[in-house]
Amino acid sequence: MTKRKGIILAGGSGTRLWPITMGVSKQLLPLYDKPMIYYPLSVLMLGGIREIAIITTPEDQTQFQRLMGDGSQWGLSFTWIVQPAPDGLAQAYLLARDFLNGAPSAMVLGDNIFFGHGLPETLAAADAQPMGGTVFGYRVADPERYGVVDFAPDGTVRSIQEKPEKPPSNYAVTGLYYLDGRAPDLAETVRPSARGELEIVDLLEKYRSEGSLRVERMGRGYAWLDTGTHGSLLDAGNFVRTLTDRQGLQVGSPDEIAWRSGFITREALLKRADTFRKNDYGRYLLGIASE
């Protein structure tokens, strides 16, 4: 079992999705048949992580807690942290300092969806690195929209450039970060950017400059989706629906992952299935409990 702790950053105001996020957190929106936050949660669970801090806005926290509880239904332990203002992704490590208590971490953004055969093995490879940081690079057709990895000829990371006019590669940095126990201390040395935020790129640069930042490239068999626009939100929902309907398998199900990972008993899974007995999700859970 990994000693790494997880962080889900589910704060922010979701202004790019207004008006639909004016009354509800973006990470609580439905992504086909499940709340959006289930998908990044499932990534941490596939990495074997069971202690997870969930960072939310003050206004939205009670809604998240009503949805997710304390995590015990999935064999997890949740710590709830308030982000008073969205002051940058690197701020999450300052807010989670006491929770981490020196442990290495895996932080995932609450609006990122990852899918692919072999994802647990990829996460395990990152978890096995005792020091430094690991980010996950994904090939995109429009790298100028993202933070982009500049690779040296030998494959090491030369720099990460934020939304460059002339991208040095087609590999974007995804919203999943594996960092060692020094992350809060290093985040404390990051100065606010021109837009007044503690940028994750500046924190990653601390690791890169000492030669301890690695990039795991996600190949053709992976899908990485974010949901920052109305169109990408719809695309992500359609992607999940297509996989679910074609294969008859769930995507981003914490209940299934908890059962197959040995986090919960069969009796606990059956109890969850009974909770959803009136819909297809409950019938699916009942089915896997009977395998």
From TrEMBL:
SUPFAM superfamilies per the UniProt record, alphabetical: Nucleotide-diphospho-sugar transferases
Looking at the record's lineage, which domain of life comes first?
Bacteria
Q: What cofactors does this protein use?
A: Mg(2+)
Name all Nucleotidyl transferase domain ranges: 5-240
Q: Give the reactions, separated by semicolons, that this protein catalyses.
A: dTTP + alpha-D-glucose 1-phosphate + H(+) = dTDP-alpha-D-glucose + diphosphate
The task this protein performs is described as: Catalyzes the formation of dTDP-glucose, from dTTP and glucose 1-phosphate, as well as its pyrophosphorolysis.
Tell me which family the UniProt entry assigns to this protein. Answer: Belongs to the glucose-1-phosphate thymidylyltransferase family.
EC?
A: 2.7.7.24
CDD domains for this protein: G1P_TT_short
Q: Which InterPro entries match?
A: G1P_thy_trans_s (IPR005907), NTP_transferase_dom (IPR005835), Nucleotide-diphossugar_trans (IPR029044)
A GO term for molecular function: glucose-1-phosphate thymidylyltransferase activity
The alphabetized UniProt keywords are: Magnesium, Metal-binding, Nucleotidyltransferase, Transferase
What protein name is recorded for this chain?
Glucose-1-phosphate thymidylyltransferase
